[in-house]
Amino acid sequence: MPGKEQRHFEGRLDARNATFAIVASKFNETIVSALIEGARGTLRQFGVEDDRVWTVRVPGAFEIPAVAHRLARSGKFDGIICLGAVIRGATPHFDYVAGESAKGIARAALESPVPLVYGILTTETIEQAVERSGTKAGNRGSDAAMACIELVDLARQLDRAIKPKQP
Fold first, then answer.
1. What is the 3-state secondary structure (H, E, C) of the chain?
2. What is the pTM (predicted TM-score) of this model?
């Protein structure tokens, strides 16, 4: 519409003065450790100092949502990155863990005052998980950190834009 101001918001890779938490499972340790290193490396690349990143380890992917939700509500973090690896086996365990962790993180994200990013690998084989944790297919931990940086910046922009006018 002519004469109307258009507003466009898009997150940038700007992590200045932001504090992040990485909630990561201990299960599938080798793969998840590579995801954590990818996330921490990306955060460093975009100016986040190591002392502004907490890494919180939980037993498995199923436990990630509750801890991520607790950290998000604490007011200490601008963004939460959830990392894990669930690899299909011969039992239906994969379906339950993968599905419930995804639902739990989605629910926590909707209730969270800060961005929560899902960075849990769900793969058919260990080879696929290795590929996605830093070899052939990039590092999904790094991708999750990049998404979180953008979402933190977007949240800051939106907070400024929708802030109530002072009388």
1. CCCCCCCCCCCCCCCCCCCEEEEEECCCHHHHHHHHHHHHHHHHHCCCCHHHEEEEEECCHHHHHHHHHHHHHCCCCCEEEEEEEEECCCCCHHHHHHHHHHHHHHHHHHHCCCCEEEEEEEECCHHHHHHHECCCCCEHHHHHHHHHHHHHHHHHHHHHHHCCCCC
2. 0.90
